[in-house]
Amino acid sequence: MSCMKRLCHETRSHDRLRRTLAVCLRLSRRLLLKMSEERDAAALSGSAQTEGEEDLFVSAMESPEAARLSAEDISPSSNGPKAEPMLLDDDPDDLFAEATEEVSLDSPERQPILSDGPSPVITPVTPVMISSRADVFDRSPDQDEDEEENRDTFDIQISVSDPEKVGDGMNAYMVYKVLTKTSLSIFSRDEVCVKRRFSDFLGLHSKLASKYMHMGYIVPPAPEKSIVGMTKVKVGKEDLSSVEFVEKRRSALERYLLRTVKHPALLKDPDVLQFLESSELPRAVSTQALSGAGILRMVNKAADAVNKMTIKMNESDAWFEEKQQQFENLDVQLRKLHASVESLVCHRKELSVNTASFAKSAAMLGNSEDHTALSRALSQLAEVEEKIDQLHQDQACADFYLISELLGDYVRLITAVKGVFDQRMKTWAKCQDAQVMLQRKREAEAKLQHANKPDKLQQAKDEIREWEGKVQQGERDFEQISKNIRREVGRFEKDRVKDFRVVIIKYLESLVHTQQQMIKYWEAFLPEAKAIA
Amino acid sequence: MTSISEDIDLNNDASLVIDIPDALCERDKVKFTVHTKTTLSSFQKPEYSVQRQHEDFIWLHDTIVETEEYAGLIIPPAPPKPDFEGPREKMHKLGEGESSMTKEEYAKMKQELEKTVQVHEVFLQRLSSHPMFRKDRNFQIFLEYDQDLTVRRKNAKEMFGGFFKNMVKSADEVLISGVKEVDEFFEQEKNFLLDYSSKIKDATAKAEKMTRSHKNVADDYNHISGALNNTAADNNTAFKKHLEKCAEVFEKLRKVEDRMASDQELKLTELLRYYTRDIQAAKDLLYRRARALADYENSNKALDKARLKGKDVAQAEENQKQCLQKFDKLSESGKKELTSFKARRVVAFRKNLIEMTELEIKHAKNSVSLLQGSIEILKSN
């Protein structure tokens, strides 16, 4: 907070901004804390999903492979991974809208691909991997019951504050203070304060996504990168737009963390705990767009897009079809609503500027007026308009932080939700492919029955057993992911409704406040107008 | 809707009462119905109702401007041309059986119509309340003549005469400021008017921008309301009602905001616009007086020359006497006009500022009760 104040002080010409930001900080923080308080969420009692001592790197090692898993296994039925780089050359932007990743022209503030971090390498699939995850899957029924019982004891507050610039020039970056206050037992202390930079948040999200998305969990998306915004900050421009940018980002990071810990499974995740508690965090190298990991991400997104087009799923469950359609519609509607609110923010800012400009002009007119009483009244009018201009500014801030940013978050969340449905499709496809494979192996074995090659026959029988296992696993996975998605969607819808209800009321209250202030100002002016004689 | 005109002592005098009870917006013209009630003997009938177009008003204004007799008076400024660009296109399309107007476009057109009626009405009422203008022959024709005035208007000479005069006038600021003023009253007025006119022009422009932004915000509320309704359509029952209620709130907010913006426009922006034009009319008076002074000084020089040469002295003396008379007359009447102008301006500002403030308070209070009521409903759901 003090660093923010310092930034504000240095922008001497921006008294208004200082005031406005102070209001917004209070508003946004109060709102977010209230939102997390009012929401019921799964509480956590003892049962941590993963033993706390689990080595970060082991779990991190698992995750890139998990992600690669899907790309590899789809290979029989579509263009293999080798084909993707070629597709990338063919202007991926057109075919694969989802495959574009925002290129961050962040300076090489870190060396690309440190060896101490998780190295994203395509490793061959091993059955062992699948079964270990199966354990995790199987534990979820218990989790359900826990959630139901312990809803009322969710108690965690997170704030992101005090953005501080570290370093100079293009190597500079912002560091934020992350303060966690909680009474939950999985945390080692009641109150923890750590310093994190933006790529740390991205790294956290990347890990969580690769761990949980394929299970059908809706992982809250991280805030977006911004080349322009960050460049201005690095270059040292402490002007209005870069201060606003930092505040916008700080607020987005805070909302991101709150949403992440609201998720009962994610809250217990060791990566999340480490992020919130550990004073040193291994640098998340793989978040850079042009790093090896970044390119791999793009490749995989392209693969996903291709797969989406080629998989024709026989939907046996009408619920999923219905929900997918609903989310498609919701996506369109939210985007429209978001656009309208953004327009409102823009116009209200304009109104504020124009009111200030009119105020100055009215003051000049008052000076020029030779009738004394009228002159005084005009000067008073100018003062009123100036105060009203400030009101408009504050309201525009509320428009933005309360509604516009929330809608933006939800637009991104819906993308995550759609992603989870896609994961289910992929799981289904995998299951199908396994069945096809099994069929082939059986046919091969049948053929070998008549040939006289006992070794090969044995091998064929082994393979059949292997693929029978895979088919079973695939069916289990599919069932599990379907179950998870149902639960996640239910949770998402509940939260969405609650969020909107809370926010709308807060927003209307902000409008009430603005109007009441206006009444005050105009009522003070009225006698001045009447005094013109 | 109270008009700017009520501050002027119009219609106090029942002997000549004028109003524009309605206006018709046709394809690309506005037809005003000018209604007159009079007890004056100079009129043939006690009541008239005629159709006039904007160009008729301009013709009337220009003939008055060019009347030498009125040189010492502040000529009421001509009403600006009705601005229906957007709505006009729509009207055109309507005529051709194409699209229909949305509620918003219709409301905007109505607002524009309100404004233009007000400003044309005030122009006539200024004339009718002035002891000299009300007796003007052309004014009477304007009010009485039950046929189209187009033929009279089409007199090209008159039109061009007016245009030429406007061109010359722009050099006047130099003339006015260059005049060596002996009379302290006029010296003060000159300084005041020159400065004030630029300030009020600026204030008008800024007020216009502010009002436009305000209307944009109201429009956004409208779009948000629509978007919320769309989202509601797809939702389950409980949340759907909630969203529909929110959409309703924004729709109502929009109406209030729109009303706030138009009232601000009518009371503040229109007031400033009007007085920008009126200040210009006062400056025109100063110009005419300065011209007369220049003429007088020239006639003095000519007289001296004539006396030197010993030729045409009587003529020069006569000329000089007339110039002096004219100048004195202009100064005397000018002083009266400018003094009453100031009084009128102060009264108008006072009235409009009070009315605007009261309306803003009223609308804000409406907003608050609407919002608080909605918050209660939304909370209880």
From TrEMBL, chain A:
GO terms for molecular function: phosphatidylinositol binding. It is a peripheral membrane protein. The keyword Kinase does not apply. Residues 63-88, 102-152 are annotated as: Disordered. It is found in: Cell projection, Lamellipodium; Early endosome membrane. PROSITE patterns: PX (PS50195). Pfam families: PX, Vps5. Its main location: other. Involved in several stages of intracellular trafficking. Interacts with membranes containing phosphatidylinositol 3-phosphate (PtdIns(3P)) or phosphatidylinositol 3,5-bisphosphate (PtdIns(3,5)P2). Acts in part as component of the retromer membrane-deforming SNX-BAR subcomplex. The SNX-BAR retromer mediates retrograde transport of cargo proteins from endosomes to the trans-Golgi network (TGN) and is involved in endosome-to-plasma membrane transport for cargo protein recycling. This is Sorting nexin-2. It comes from Sinocyclocheilus anshuiensis. The gene is snx2.
From TrEMBL, chain B:
Residues 1-149 form the PX domain. One of its GO terms (biological process) is protein transport. The keyword Transferase does not apply. One of its GO terms (molecular function) is phosphatidylinositol binding. Keywords: Protein transport, Transport. It holds the Pfam family PX. InterPro entries: AH/BAR_dom_sf, PX_dom, PX_dom_sf, SNX5/SNX6/SNX32, Vps5_C. It comes from the Eukaryota. Coiled coil: none annotated. Transmembrane segments: none annotated. One of its GO terms (cellular component) is cytosol. Belongs to the sorting nexin family. This is Sorting nexin 5.
